[in-house]
Amino acid sequence: MLCYSILPILSFTSLVAGTTLEDTPAVFAPWEITRLTTFSPSGRPNSSPWSLINVTITDPNTIPAGQTPTGTAVFEPVIANCSTAWTFDSDPFNQVFNCTDIDHGSWTFEMLNDGVESPIATQNFNLWFKQARKLRTPGGNYSIEFEGTGQFRIGENMEGICGGSGVCSFSLKNEAKPFSINQTRTECSGLCG
After folding, report:
1. pLDDT tens for residues 31-47?
2. Domain span including residue 79
3. Which of 13, 19, 78, 167 has its CA at a distance of 20 to 30 angstroms from the CA of residue 109?
4. Rounded CA separation 23/6 (Å)
């Protein structure tokens, strides 16, 4: 983990802005999945061959990045939408996909086999997320990365239905929303707390 000492900066900052080391968060609020849906087609002739997953994930944290001549630069809270599609003759496991753009960085995700003998990517799976952000300021260049994984299971935090045609649709249960993912900081340069 790459982190630089911040004690001299914070000592100066505490005199100027009333900030202390305790004000720099060492523990962040979990990420929140507010929407997760999956779809699988019937497989009948002339029907769509695409299975889908759509996820909305939020980082609610305001993360101090570093000092600038005008104050503390921060990474603002962000929301990303993550989705991918695959056909009957492929699966989405163990591939990294890009989510929508976020301010000063990127969010990616990967679907992981949950360890069952016959995995079904729309029903029982793990999702791994990575957030990487960089910020250039007059005070310096700052970067931070986090990773986190969530587990999703039909009957636990997922529910849905399959029609007589074989079309299936599943989503995060209402009582499971928002679903929390505890992230781990894997890289940091700047105010690392």
Report:
1. 999 999 999 998 888 88
2. 31-189
3. 167
4. 13
